[in-house]
Amino acid sequence: MEGCGPVTQDAGDDVVDAGFIVDMTARVQEGNCRAFELPSNDPFLPKLHQIGNSLDDIASHLTPKGGVSFYPRNMGKNPSTLVKSLCSRIEEKYTSDEQSLVYLANSLSVTINIPIQKVPQQVVCDVCIVSQSAPVVVMTLVVKNSEAPELVDYNLQITKGFVSQVRNFTDEHFSALYGVLQESDLASEASFQTAIERIRSHSSSFCIPDSLSMNEEKFRDIVKALAASVAVSKALQVIKSPAPEAVDEADFEDEEEGGLWLLTKDQFVLLTENIDTSGLVVVWASTHTGSSTLLMEVASRLQQSGNTLLVSGSKAVCESARHNQVCYRVVSSADFLQLQANIGGMLAEFEHIVAEDIPEVMLHGARKSHVWLCMKVKENTTPKGNAASPKSPVFVSMNGRPPLSPATATAVAGKDPVYRTTISFSLPVDTHEPWVYDFTVVTDNNKKVIVAIDRPNCRIKCFYTEDGEIRTSYLSVDKDTTGITNIDNRVALTVPKSRLIRVISVIPDLHPHSIIPTQRRYYDIATLGFQKMAVSAPLDGRPCVDIIDYSGNILKSIATDDEGQTLFNHPLTVQTIFPNKVLVYDKHNGAIVCVSERGQLLFRYIHERKLENPCGMTVTPAGEILVADSRQHRVIHINQEGKFMRNILTRPNGMVFPYRVCCDGTGVLYVATHYKEVKLYEFK
Does 399 have pLDDT greater than 70? Predict the structure, then answer.
């Protein structure tokens, strides 16, 4: 990358902030589709259909235990202090009840598709409480004056819509108390109790007393009916396996002939847990998991709160969405760019955008919108426990390329690194100061691509040279993405909290490829030969390093040496030495530990001056080990026997806080410094 020109951005880099990442990996089975019946107050209720026992699964998910159950679960993370105070007051009041469901939403009009002309700006959230021992109540929490006519009218419309929708799926005779809460009502337990009594006194006069009574059986019936009212889908449900070339689309059941379809539990959870999320929601979906149906349903719900645009690369999805009037506008991904080019700022008219099968960078101008983006990933077709071996031996170095022999590789010994250039990982789209948490270099057709995890901005970024300029590409990734390695012309990312590894293609732009579920929370990752990877597990049971295959199966777990002594206290980062050695940074001991693939201890390196935060390690094509000792501002050279050779780069050389290092197949050294830039060196 020597002599690179200025950094330029591809068209459309101005997108929304990175947000939540959710996954859809469970395949929808056509054979599980079935009709079923529910008791109903509506004699003309259409025929109901579900996948498996979706409704029972959803109802159980809403009330998993006794006591007070709040849903959606992530409403507890709501930054609003008013919402937190409301939850606290509800829990205090209903704590003695055997079981209660508290369903919260920014607006129940979106969650249950209740037609509302406009949600008043003063509305903080809606809450529905279903209890075994108290009447159902629907309240609207607001700021400012709770007696404003538009707020009272809004709460009444929400309550009527809620009761009407739920009654469709139960024959129970029930009504709901309703009213508006304001900030002062949450000031104390007493003020909240007074507000509840005020709501009861005002609204109960409009209800038949028997309709307000509750018991355990009635509670369960209403919870199940509530689940059905939220899960019923306006979008057409995929019921037949599509053709191989299709993308999770046709054939769709006609709504008039097929009746009403309910979402699967996975679709329900992804929709309800994220429908009120501001910013960007990214769905990583395997094929045939019902992701297209989910996105059409998301578009339908979001349309209740503002004009919504649906974008899809599937002709069948677009036709189905238009036929069912899912949202304000539906366009194909092929037409999307053309519309952007023809109509400047076309996205400004949309409150929400729901898209699939398009790159993130196409969402130009969507910064103020609520955006759902579905990225399709290939299925991991290798059977669990039966990982296929390559047809011939394949040796993969840490850069994903066959390692050079020591005779032809550039050696570090006796040579000094010569500075070439610096690549900044800042992008105009960034909303936070970038941090190159980890990175690697992928070489494909002689093109070198630097791929890095930027944790504050929740992105994976790549930089490469084309026509004398540095080009960029990026994808949103999970906030807890921690490690990266190469698998041929792809990269694999560890996501410890979700217990999975994401695989992304680099060609040279970034595209989702597949998802590998794992048994443990893996922090870092490095490739080995013969379709194997070394991964570190510092906080999941006994600290260890596992050798896994490309399906996530554990082939070997390394925790102790031949004498049963613990090898690591906190194995953080890992690196590999061709063909079967693993380097581990043991953080609590400040040591670099080298073990064989079978778990034999080869050496343990602790310098006379203890290493201070040596998170970055790399191996040159000749097998020499380089370690970034960030707090001592140096990069050191260790040989394959674990002997200190010398300092390669130090602070007098301009080396400040080297955090990560990487060496490509030609011996070029890349050092991430200051957390937001990468410096390139060659050994001369």
Answer: no
